[in-house]
Write a structure and sequence with these properties.
Bact_MG10; 7-stranded mixed beta sheet; transmembrane; Alpha-2-macroglobulin; Alpha_2_Macroglob_MG3; membrane; 23 helices; 6-stranded mixed beta sheet; Immunoglobulin-like
């Protein structure tokens, strides 16, 4: 090795020489320093160790600090984009405002209080430089807008800066703080130049240039920069400048366009050029930047010989008859006078052969038999002669001169034409065609056409059996007649699709050749002039088979254009039938020669009525055999028609496979006809479309015994805590069904979709049953749905009826109001002059409401006149308004009679017709509550209006066809009247060319609509109307205009007359059938009279239908108008329909309309036979406190319910007296479907001819964020008797009217017998000597000061006109009267007065009573009401926990709470279960109700109820385990999972597992847990346990499922092994610290696999990091781990770190827990307590009072003692003298006394604003005013925060505005047995929750709970601002505290928001 090294060194030395290196000095110094340091360390080892340790600690600390910093929430860095303002739209009408500067941010930026508001830029941190006046507005949280006051300076650069601290929300950081933009700069451009020839004066020629500016231009500055230069052309490449013409400049009115006009230009010999140059430096009139570049453009000036022929061509054009015409097109470069051109244009036909034989022979050698091909090389002028010259006929144009000319000519297609335009042709402007223009053109081929005439497929067997064919330019026709073979109809139908007349075969291998025998013939056509139409007749009679069979008259016909010379089609389309429809030279049609027409009507049960009608004469065909043919061709069913041509078949669904029906076949003698049968979709298009008729309604059930239920409540609205009282009537469709044994179910659903009651419903005798449903004060508010269903199985049922009721706080109305107009016309209109609104306001106790404030709003809306008495007439109003108008009318008060008149002063408006709408509000005496009414009326100054109705379509009339229009005049009462002195003008409408001035100052012709008066006549309309026959003697567009003597247009009738056209052109015209009935209501057995107006004469079928055909009648008429009668059968009830199908007479000349017309008219059938007379006797007047006696009887034995309800409640609810008969017999839909083939009848050939045809509780209240201090209120006045027996014997029930009630009772009764139902609706007035009507707020806050008024009605007889009434007010300790508590008021007998008191709310929470007393002479009256004094803060629970080692600790108490509902408790224990007391309190008051939450709320009752210290949990909310199980059962789906929320299908796996876990815990503790419920849940568990999860979350749930199944003794070894393998392969390093490992360890422990279990559990650590999942937060994870350790590995509890409990205490203190973590922690603590051994306690608790003294608290005995402390405690002192840790807990729950003045924004922010309806913030509010509440919120913590509750407390003196929602009684029917009728599984009457109070909302809103004093919204939040708007109303004058809005997240207690409290004043209007 050394030798090798030497050689290598020698080699290097040889290459590089000797190299010497000396180490640097720093190396030497470093070595020396290192040696000294080493020696120092050796000399001082301890000191070195301390230094090294310090450095390590510093490094580690720095790393930890960095990680802490990185883990903190980072501000969101937001980018933005600024959109500079665009140029202002100066030309807009009206002129546009300056465009704004828009800044759009990519995230939510604006502070919440600025969203939607204009801001002060200084306060908002915005600066604009240079400064410019304008307004900065946050349009939303992401859009900032600057709107300048004036127009932007031109081209100015601006800088915008945003202040870092003031501009954006605290959590936002902008990516930059400023930006620049430039306002729109001035610019100019030449947009157009033209050489202009004046269209009138030939010598006027000039150049016009258009220059467009962005801003109005500075004229002087612009004009001095314009220069024109003129150049003459010398040669093609050279030109010389000559004297430039003068010029003028004109501008538009806005100076945005300049038009440079040169002076008049002479025509130069040669073309020249005019150059326009505009130098730079143009400026706007307002200054600013100048243009930087010059503008330049040139225009060619034509020379004398500049006229050119731009186009010469031969073409084909169709005329007004749709005939093709040969035309020569000549286009010129300048317009030429029409009269000049014919002299200069000539055309000759060129010979077919060249005159030179040699040339011709040479051509024929190559192109034998073809015409000679002429071109410019071989053309010789001598070939032209006079005989071959073509006659050119000029087609005139609209103007005298134009560029595009045309001539008609006639020549054979394919010939060549020589066209010459000679020189000298002059244009209108004097330009000359210098050289001749010659072209050789080929005459184009005329179009070839071929078709089968007319639409349809049926030819009458009794007629000429001839089909019409049309051809053009076709030498011959090849006709292929395919006659259907016997027994092939089923294949024709089953193997094809498409329409009846043109079926398409579905399979390429199966075609017409498979089912027909073919007959083919070629029909040569005579040679006629090119383009002339030819008509041929095909007689199908010769193809009719004389043999018997079903092939007699069914043909598949195909025609082709045929080249006889080549014996081939002129256009190849293929041999298949389907191909014939793809060519213009072929056609195909299915033709049936028959006299049998079919009409089939299918009933709702599938039964079918078949009618056979003769095509020949329209009569019914008797004795015809009707078969239903199956797929195999064999009859399935056969019937023979009766004398009415009718047969009936049952439903066909039972026939399947080869017997599946495919067609109807009708046969009689040798005649047969068919129609495809469709079970579902009308694939053949044979069904009549009835959608344009009134056929809607409820649907019938195929089962006539199908059940329906009518549900009604006694009043429709209830307060929370009241009982809902309702009843249900069950009936079958035919009213004959008994209900014994029919399983019915009652379901009641709350507003959120939770089924709160599901039970069997037994209707009782006569199908009449009662429903009572209690509610709680904590029940959700909103719409409750009561449903009756027919039971199908345990989970499903079919809805047969439902109704809705409202549950919410409300105040009954005490007034009734009506509105009328001084002039009224229900059906017509009234004149505006002197029109006024008359209002009547009454007390509900029957007296006028005098001296009451009235407000009103008037709205005028444009209205188009339409009148229900004349529904078919069109009316025109010459004074039709174009714009609406709205205004508030001046306030007024009612007089002594309760009346008020509001002058409308409509004469101030221009003469116009409006829909006048008045909304008026009448208020209670000196209060803000009131009632509303409205009225509407059509207003017009017209004395009469004219309407018209045509007897047919006016859009396309046949030439000389009769058409009549009926005119009538009506007066303001909508009564027909006579009108004279009218003028009728007939007008022709054409489009003509009109000379129009252009914007640049020049003139051009433009096409404009022109109406020319043809004739004018005087016209008078009689009282009975006037007929007008339209003139149809000339084609075109026409109109009749009717005017009054003043020239006002009263009517305009537009119509179009088609010229003569080809029969191939279909006339698009519907054959309308007009039906009218003699009346709208008929009795069973009565004759229905039908007036029929048809478009032609013929025969028809009338039927009475609904769910099936009930009756029919045939008729025939020789006129177009007839009256027919048909008898209404007995037993038909409710409503039905008259349906008419009408077939055109074969002899009718109306062959261009559909041969079938039809119509439907509904009518009602009275149900008097179903009415059950009921007699109710009640007094008309009673006094408060008296007994109301209700006496009742019925004509026949019945069951009856009587109820009497305060009319004020019913008015609030919008309640209508029950009307069961109207429900059961409400309009049913027409469900008979009609199919037919009659519209396929072809017209007889003789009518077509061969000529052209025309064309054409308190704790519960706290838990749900509700008011525990709510007032007791007065019970609603409502009496319900329950269901009683009734007959002809008079019976009596009694009701004691409450002594506080004055008003009207609506007395109602519903009496039900087996076959009849009766209803009573009456009124009883309740009125005392004095009627006291207080008006007070429902809720106030301590410190509120407000007015309370009392209305007093003096009904004391003899008190006189000068009666003095003393009114006194007495309050309890909660309120104090500010001022005098007694007042003297003069109130005359029979009159009303009021008094007003000022009150202040004291600091005493709870309901407070107000006692009013009135006294005069011998008359006295008293009234007591109460209101709620509630705090301005929400109820909050604060838990503080800790772990205390040996020693003492003082914990400060810092909340000051109201004594009401205050809870101050503390406890101490050696076991951590002491914390459970706090969690129990928290869960007991938890306000929400998803499945996880109700399970967590039940945890204390299941786990702790057996422990003595927790015995109180049995009384806490959620302790009803049986109720929980019932709720879980209702939420369990078919798979065994539990839905997260009631009313939807969302399932969360963990929640289902958690619920199952609770059931197992309950079962182990001996509590009721149904085995079937658990087993169903286990099915879901098994599925989860065995699945292969997609992520670690899935695997965690699988492990949880395995554990729960293993706890029940199920072997899960295979599942555990499979899962452990998956976890090891996919999630190594993750799952070992996931709770997945704990669940598997517990399962293995239960299976006695101790080793594997120990390995898994030993690696688990507490306080491990978790994923960001809703159901797997750190506290929940640690709680579940502690549960597993305590229950299954108790021996390992000694190794649990002490900081686990410390962390738990810290989480409690910080509020970092929610329902799930609280529930799982209880689970863990209970297991921990059971596994741990208690020890003798050695600790103490004492109060440190505010005076610094100490008072010991005596702890009770037990493991978990708890003791209350007083509100005098400033701190609690905990002592521990033992060696074990002690766990303490402090709970403070209640309402804080001091309203918060600061906001809270912890992960969420919330803001409330009060505005008017337009969104303008309110600075003052008047009593009675409605206020919009804007509740805005935004998430700050994460991108999504689910399950957030927003609590918004109303200020005192306000109430919610809740729109009236009348109860909805749903009609539904269902078969009473399984398998009958249509089934709808799982259906109920619940239709989903909607926000009833929201005016608008842009929020993820799940539910809103409406209460008297607050609204609780349940929402989800994200980083965007969301908003909910609802409305409140000021009811009382006063100054009120405004409570803060509050929000919290259900699953994250660190997310809390609160707005600031405030003050609000309501003033008197």
């Amino acid at each position: 090795m050394s030798a090798i090294g030497d050689r290598f060194r020698n080699a290097l030395r040889t290459l590089f020489g000797d190299i010497a290196w000396t180490r640097p000095g720093w190396v030497t110094r470093s070595n020396a320093a290192a040696e000294r340091a080493t020696a120092h360390v050796r000399a001082n080892p301890k000191r070195f160790a301390l230094i090294a340790g310090g450095i390590a600690v510093a490094v580690i600390g720095a790393v930890l600090v960095w990680r802490w910093y990185e883990g903190r929430p980072k501000p969101v860095e937001v980018t933005f984009e600024a959109s500079p303002p665009a140029v202002t739209c100066y030309a807009c009408e009206p002129p546009g405002t300056p465009n704004p500067l828009i800044v759009r941010f990519d995230a939510s930026v604006a502070p919440l209080d600025r969203v939607g508001h204009t801001v002060d830029p200084k306060q908002a941190g915005i600066s604009l430089s240079p400064d410019f006046a304008g307004a900065w507005t946050w349009d939303d949280d992401k859009t900032l807008r600057f709107q300048p006051q004036a127009d932007w300076p031109v081209g100015t650069q601006y800088t915008v800066k945003f202040d870092r601290k003031q501009f954006a929300a605290d959590s936002v950081r902008l990516w930059r703080q400023d930006f620049e933009f430039t306002s729109p700069a001035f610019d100019a451009k030449i947009t157009a130049t033209e050489f202009h020839q004046d269209p009138v004066v030939a010598g006027n020629k000039k150049v016009v240039a258009t220059i467009t500016f962005t801003h109005p231009v500075d004229q002087a500055n612009f004009e001095k920069r314009v220069r024109l230069q003129m150049f003459d052309r010398v040669t093609d490449k050279t030109e010389k400048e000559i004297t430039a013409p003068a010029h003028t400049i004109v501008y538009d009115k806005l100076k945005l366009n300049a038009y440079i006009h040169s002076a008049q230009l002479e025509v130069p010999p040669k073309a020249g050029r005019l150059q326009i140059t505009i130098s730079s430096g143009i400026q706007a009139a307002r200054g600013g930047n100048a243009t930087k570049e010059a503008l330049q453009n040139s225009v060619e000036v034509p020379g004398l010989n500049s006229l050119k022929i731009s186009n010469l061509a031969l073409d084909i054009a169709r005329d007004e008859r749709n005939e093709p015409n040969q035309i020569l097109l000549v286009s010129t470069s300048f317009s030429v006078l029409e009269k000049e051109l014919p002299q200069k244009v000539s055309a000759w036909l060129l010979p077919l052969k060249h005159p030179d034989p040699k040339v011709q022979a040479e051509f024929e050698r190559h192109y034998r038999g073809k015409p000679f091909a002429w071109d410019a090389r071989n053309f010789r002028p001598e070939v032209l002669n006079a005989n071959t010259r073509l006659e050119l006929t000029q087609i005139p144009g609209e103007q005298d001169h134009y560029e595009h000319h045309s001539f008609r000519y006639t020549a054979d297609p394919g010939r060549q034409v020589y066209v010459r335009v000679v020189p000298g042709l002059r244009s209108f402007g004097g330009y000359v065609l210098g050289d001749a223009v010659e072209r050789i053109l080929e005459v184009p081929e005329l179009p070839r056409e071929l078709s089968i005439l007319s639409k349809g497929s049926l030819l009458s067997l009794s007629g000429d059996k001839t089909l019409s064919l049309f051809a053009r330019n076709v030498p011959a026709l090849r006709i292929e007649v395919g006659r259907l073979l016997p027994r092939q109809l089923q294949h024709l139908v089953s193997q094809t699709s498409g329409s009846f007349e043109t079926p398409q075969f579905n399979n390429w291998a199966f075609d017409s050749a498979n089912i027909t025998e073919r007959f083919v013939k070629v029909l040569p056509l005579p040679k006629v002039a090119p383009g002339k139409p030819q008509y041929e007749a095909l007689d199908l009679g010769e193809y009719l088979d004389s043999q018997s069979g079903d092939r007699r008259g069914i043909f598949l016909l195909k025609i082709q254009a045929w080249d006889t010379g080549q014996d081939r089609p002129m256009e190849y389309t293929g041999d298949n039938w389907n191909d014939a429809r793809n060519s213009s030279l072929a056609d195909a049609r299915l033709i049936v020669v028959t006299d049998l027409g079919l009409v089939v009507k299918r009933a709702v049960d599938g039964a079918q009525d078949v009618f056979v009608q003769s095509i020949a004469d329209g009569t019914p065909v008797a004795g015809a055999s009707v078969d239903i043919i199956g797929r195999n061709g064999l009859p399935v069913l056969t019937e023979t028609t009766d004398a009415d041509g009718h047969v009936r078949f049952p439903e066909l669904r039972s026939f399947q496979r080869e017997r599946q029906p495919v067609l109807y076949l009708a046969r009689r003698g040798g005649d047969s006809s068919f129609m495809p049968l469709s079970q579902g979709w009308d694939e053949r298009g044979r069904a009549l479309d009835l959608s344009r008729f009134d056929i809607g309604g409820v649907q019938s059930n195929a089962d006539r015994g199908a059940l329906s239920a009518y549900l009604f409540s006694d009043r429709g609205i209830y307060r929370p805590g009241e009982e809902i009282r309702a009843a249900a009537i069950v009936r079958s469709q035919d009213w004959n069904r008994k209900f014994d044994g029919i399983p019915l179910r009652l379901e009641i659903t709350d507003p959120r979709g939770t089924v709160i009651r599901r039970e069997t419903f037994v209707p009782g005798q006569a199908g009449f049953g009662e429903i009572r449903q209690p509610t709680r004060e904590t029940s959700p508010t909103g719409t409750y749905t009561l449903s009756i269903l027919v039971v199908r199985n345990e989970n499903y049922g079919d809805l047969i009826g439902s109704t809705t009721v409202q549950v919410r706080d409300f105040q009954p109305d005490r007034l009734r109001m009506s509105a009328t107009f001084s002039a009224q016309s229900a059906d017509g209109w009234v004149a505006p002059e002197e029109l006024a609104a008359n209002l009547q306001l009454e007390n509900l106790f029957g007296t006028p409401a005098e001296n009451r404030r009235i407000t009103a709003r008037m709205t005028l809306s444009p209205a188009f006149p339409a009148f229900r008495r004349f529904p078919d007439y069109q009316f025109h109003d010459p004074q039709y308004a174009r714009e609406g108008f709205s205004e508030e009318l001046p306030e007024t008060t009612t007089d002594a009679t309760g009346k008020a008149t509001l002058p409308l002063n409509l004469q101030r408006f221009a003469r116009a017709t409006y829909r006048l709408h008045i909304v008026a509000q009448g208020f209670e005496a000196d209060g803000g509550r009131g009632v509303t009414t409205e009225a509407a009326q059509l207003v017009s100054s017209m004395k009469y209006l004219v309407g018209y109705k045509a007897d047919g379509d006016l859009a396309y009339l046949k030439l000389n066809a009769p058409r009549n229009v009926r005119l009538l005049a009506i007066d303001p009462q909508a009564q027909q009247t006579a009108v004279e002195n009218l003028k009728l003008s007939r007008i022709e409408i054409r489009y003509v060319s009109v000379l129009m001035r252009q914007p640049n100052g020049t003139y051009k012709y433009e096409s404009r609509r022109k109406e020319s008066v043809i004739s004018e006549t005087a016209l008078a309309i009689g009282r009975d109307g006037q007929n007008l026959q339209l003139a149809t003697d000339a084609p075109g567009n026409f109109a009749y205009v009717l005017r009054d003597p003043e020239g006002q247009q009263l009517a305009r009738i537009d119509y179009q007359v088609a010229g003569e056209g080809n029969v191939t052109r279909a006339l698009e015209k519907n054959a309308e059938l007009e039906l009218s009935l003699s009346k709208k209501d008929y009795s069973p057995g009565e004759e229905v009279e039908v007036s029929i107006r048809a478009p032609y004469e013929g025969a028809g079928l009338i039927t009475i239908e609904r769910e099936r055909v009930h009756a029919w009648h045939w008729f025939k008429t020789s006129t177009t108008s007839t009256v027919q009668k048909i008898k209404l059968p007995a037993g038909l009830e409710g409503n039905a329909y008259v349906a008419v199908t009408f077939v055109r007479d074969p002899g009718s000349a109306e062959i261009y309309t559909s041969p079938l017309s039809y119509g439907v008219q509904p009518f009602s059938i009275d149900v008097d036979a179903r009415r059950n007379p009921v007699k109710i006797e009640t007094p008309s007047l009673v006094k408060p406190g008296e007994t109301l006696k209700l006496r009742y009887s019925t004509d026949r034995p019945s069951r009856i319910v009587l109820f009497a309800v305060d009319e004020g409640i019913l008015q609030v609810a919008g309640y209508k007296t029950p009307d069961p008969l109207a429900h059961f017999f409400q309009k049913r839909a027409l469900e008979v479907s009609t199919s037919q083939i009659l519209d396929l009848i072809l017209p007889e050939f003789r009518h077509l001819g061969l000529s052209s045809a025309p064309g054409g509780d308190a704790e519960g209240l706290l838990g749900k964020h509700l008011n525990p201090f709510r007032r007791k209120g007065e019970k609603p006045v409502a009496y319900w008797s329950g269901i009683l027996d009734a007959d002809s014997t008079t019976r009596e029930v009694q009701y004691v009217v409450p002594d506080y009630f004055n008003g009207t009772l609506r007395v109602m009764a519903v009496a039900v017998a087996d076959d009849r139902i009766g209803v009573h609706d009456g009124r009883t007035i309740v009125r005392g000597d004095f009627v006291l009507s207080p008006n007070a707020p429902t809720t106030v806050t301590p410190g509120d000061e407000f007015d309370v008024s009392i209305g007093v009605a003096n009904n004391v007889e003899g008190s006189g006109a000068n009666a003095q009434v003393e009114i006194a007010l007495e309050t309890d300790k909660g309120l104090e009267v500010v001022g005098d508590a007694r007042q003297q008021v003069g109130i005359a007998e029979g009159r009303e007065g009021s008094a007003r008191f000022r009150l202040r709310a004291r600091d005493e929470l709870g309901p407070s009573v107000l006692k009013f007393a009135a006294k005069t002479g011998n008359g006295t009256g008293r009234r007591q009401i109460d209101l709620s004094i509630r705090p301005a803060t929400p109820y909050m629970t604060q838990l503080r926990a800790g772990v205390l080692e040996k020693g003492e600790r003082d914990v400060a108490i810092n909340r000051t709470l109201y004594p009401q509902h205050r809870k101050l408790e503390t406890g101490m224990s050696v076991l951590p279960l002491q914390f459970a007391h706090g969690f129990v309190s928290y869960l007991a008051n938890y306000p929400y109700a998803c499945t996880e939450q109700i399970v967590s709320q039940a945890m204390p009752a299941v786990l702790l109820a057996s422990r003595p210290e927790f015995g109180y949990v049995r009384a806490e909310p959620g302790a009803d385990v049986a109720g929980l199980i019932s709720e879980l059962r209702s939420r369990q789906n078919d798979a065994g999972a539990y839905r997260l929320w009631p009313g939807n299908d969302q399932v969360v796996e963990f929640v289902s597992l958690y619920a199952q876990h609770l059931l197992l815990e309950a079962a182990e503790r001996g509590q009721p847990a149904p085995a079937d419920l658990i087993e169903n849940g286990n099915n879901h568990l098994r599925a989860i346990a065995a699945r292969d999860g997609n992520n670690l979350t899935d695997e965690r749930q699988s492990a949880y499922a395995i554990y729960l199944l293993t706890r029940q003794g199920q072997r899960m070894a295979a599942e555990i092994a499979a899962q452990r393998k998956r976890l090891s392969e996919r999630y190594r390093g993750q799952w070992e610290q996931d709770v997945t490992a704990a669940w598997l360890a517990a399962a293995l422990d239960l299976m006695k696999q101790d080793r594997d279990a120990g390995q898994l559990i030993d690696g688990m650590k507490f306080i491990a990091k978790t994923t960001d999942e809703v159901y797997y937060d750190p506290m929940t994870r640690d709680a579940l781990l502690l549960f597993v350790l305590s229950r299954h590995f108790p021996e390992r509890l000694r190794s649990v770190p002490a900081d686990v409990m410390t962390t738990m205490a810290q989480r409690v203190n910080d509020g970092f827990y929610h329902s799930l973590s609280a529930g799982t922690t209880l689970l863990a603590l209970d297991a921990y307590a059971s596994a741990s051994e208690g020890a003798e306690r050695n600790f103490s608790i004492a109060e440190v009072l505010k005076n610094k003294s100490v008072r010991a608290l005596a702890l009770p005995q037990g493991l978990f003692p708890e003791v209350a402390f007083t509100d005098q405690a400033a701190a609690l002192r905990f002592g521990n003298t033992s060696d074990r840790n002690a766990f303490y807990l402090i709970e403070q729950s209640g309402f804080d006394r001091t309203p918060p003045r600061t906001e809270i924004k912890e992960g969420l922010e919330v803001l409330r604003e009060y505005t008017d309806a337009s969104g303008k913030p309110l600075t003052q509010i008047t009593m009675g005013q409605q206020v919009d509440v804007h509740l805005k919120f935004r998430g700050l913590k994460s991108d999504f925060i689910g399950s957030v509750a927003l609590v918004d407390l109303l200020p005192g003196g306000f109430e919610l505005v809740v729109p009236t929602q009348p109860n909805q009684a749903t009609f539904s029917e269902a078969a009473s047995e399984e398998g009958e009728g249509e089934k709808s599984y799982g259906e109920s009457g619940f239709t989903g929750w909607q926000c009833q109070i929201c005016v608008s909302q842009k929020a993820m809103l799940d539910y809103a709970d409406m209460r008297e004093d607050r609204v609780v919204f349940y929402v989800s939040a994200n980083r965007d601002v969301q908003e909910i708007v609802y409305r409140i109303k000021a009811t009382n004058v006063g100054t009120y505290n405004v409570p803060p809005a509050y929000g919290e997240a259900m699953y994250d207690r660190s997310v809390v928001a609160r707005s600031a409290a405030g003050k609000l004043t309501v003033s008197r209007p």
